[in-house]
Amino acid sequence: MTPNFTVSLKNRLALTYALFISLALGILCFVINLFAGMFFTALIKENIAEKSREIVQSIGSQYNAGGMGFDLAAVEAIGMHFARDGYIIAVEDSGGRRLWDARSCDMQCCVDAINSIASRMEGRFGMAGALQKERYPVNYGARIVATVIIETYGPFFYSETETNFLNSLNRLLLMAGIVLIGIGVIVSAAISRTIAKPILTAAKAARVITRNYSGNTEPKSAYVNIPDQYKTRELAALSRSINTLAGELEEAERRKKQLTSDIAHELRTPLTCLRGNIEAMIDGVYPADRERLENCHEEIIRLSNLVQDIDTLTALEWETITLNKTEFDLVKLLQITAEQWRPAAEEKGVAIDLRTRETVITADYDRLKQVFINILSNAVKYTDEGSITVTVEALNERRGCIVTIADTGIGIPEEDIPHIFERFYRSDKSRSRSTGGAGIGLTIAATIVQAHGGTIEVKSGKTGTAFSVALPRVPLTK
């Protein structure tokens, strides 16, 4: 099995930046060296041409117009001086007769100069060449009195001074490149650390979150909160996301504990009642008459309904229930549901008013009935005076319809509205256990509506609550 080697993000970023900077500097140095070489070569060629003109001018100045011709001693001094620099000079008169030749004067000096130049150019710079000969006329007035022949190593050559200058320049560029690469590595490490640090902090926070909420027995850490102080948009978004996740999980943990407490309470109340009644009848304290047995039966029904609601909600959330879709008049369903709760409402002096018109949809009749039963039961339960109004607004063929059930009850506090569709959620102020219910009716209603591809919303103030259920003409396939 091949080992799985991993590299830390910080090291990977540092290496990437360092390689990028090194490559960029390498390309930059190459380009600088290329263009510098081109300009320097052009300058050297111009210097050689300028030096050749200087030689011709110097030799021409040794011409005696009085008939004596050239001062050959001076020409020799000039020729041997420049021969040491690699300029092999010869002078011919206008008839082609050789007046002076550096090779004839000192062949060894000329050979040594050319060999030194060839060795320097081929050995240090890898430039092979050969002697090149140029002829320059020497004018006196309007006539040519001689020709200067100059042989040099070609196509060009560097003098010792120019060679030392190039070597110094190359060393400077190399040192500058090394220094810049070092600076680039340091900058890369700093940048990678700046980028990796918040990610590592987020990873650490994620591990803490996992340990806190994974259900293990390890001691839980304090609430996770990453400082949101990053100037980079993505890193700031990452820290906010982790903080939001930690907050939601913290709230979920609190709600889970509350859920456990709520379920325990919902089960404890009927079980306590059953146990007390049964033990009293066994001990002979209470007679096993019809009234006592009916009380026990009511508590058993309450337990059964609670278990059935939890089972229904679980099945809906896991999408294991298939919708039994049929075409029916939604208004008739609402009328039947309203009639079920009308006696309880009239007993409290609350009227149920239906403002509807025929609206045919395709949906699961029984599931939608359960939705409106749950909403109407809450409306009747929390409305002590006034009325409950049920309206149906038919929309276009694509959007379906909206059913609104509005009451004039005690309302829902604003801080509780975002949570009322969560399982076992009840506001301690407005939806206490004294009114009964397990706190999952609205969760079931919302899940059924969503399974149909619809939405459910609630609006409430200090008095009155309105639930709006939007349904499509045909539900999603389930």
Tell me what you see in this structure.
The protein is of the alpha+beta class. It has three domains: 9-179, Beta-Lactamase, CATH 3.30.450; 267-315; 325-471, Heat Shock Protein 90. Helix content is 56%, strand content 17%. It has nine helices and 13 strands. The protein has helices at 9-60, 72-83, 102-125, 160-213, 233-282, 290-317, 330-347, 365-381, 441-451, and strands at residues 63-64, 69-70, 88-93, 98-101, 130-140, 143-154, 325-329, 350-355, 360-364, 386-394, 401-407, 455-460, 465-471. A five-stranded mixed β-sheet has the order 8-10-11-13-12, with helices on one face. A hairpin with a 4-residue loop joins strand 12 (455-460) and strand 13. Helix 2 packs parallel to helix 3 (102-125) and helix 7 (330-347) runs parallel beside helix 8. The radius of gyration is 51 Å and the shape is rod-shaped. The protein starts with 8 loop residues before the first helix and ends in a 7-residue tail after the last strand. Residues 428-436 have low confidence and may be disordered.
Level-1 CATH class name of the largest domain: Alpha Beta
Unreliable segments of 5+ consecutive residues: 428-436
The CATH architecture of the largest domain: 2-Layer Sandwich
* Helix-strand pattern: HEEHEEHEEHHHEHEEHEEHEE
| Rg on CA atoms, Å | 51 Å
Apparent shape: rod-shaped
**How many domains?**
3
Question: How would you sum up this structure in a few lines?
Answer:
The chain has 478 residues and is of the alpha+beta class. Helix content is 56%, strand content 17%.
